[in-house]
Amino acid sequence: MNDNTLTIFPLDGHLLALHPDALALAIPYHARGKSRADWIIGVKHVSDAQSVHGDHWERHPRGDETLCLLEGSIELVLQTDDGAERRIALQAGQACIVPRGTWHRLQVDVPGRLLFITPSIGSEHRKVGGAA
Description:
Blueprint: E1 14-18, E2 24-28, E3 39-46, E4 56-59, E5 65-79, E6 85-91, E7 95-98, E8 104-119, E9 124-127
Antiparallel strand pairs: 1-2, 1-3, 3-8, 4-9, 5-6, 5-7, 5-8
């Protein structure tokens, strides 16, 4: 792709991969783990625990994650250093920044759409109730 190529892509099923040289590429969602981009941006439908992998904790050691709730209502669950859970309600039109390295997961209260800006590589996952 060169500087003169305009790319139009559907938000459903695609991510925007932002590279260090300011290159932006649309990639299929299933290719997210293969991208060498610094950041990925995507919009996903959130409807239930399965749609947000609610049974798994996630963290991003390489950087903060920004979550922007476009529609619906969700609960962000953060795990503190002592293993306790801190719950934060997010409503449509609100955003939050999850600090680098913080274990977190989502619960859907009202289905909607979530925009996320996430470090592209290095994310870690573990089952809820599993060891750190």
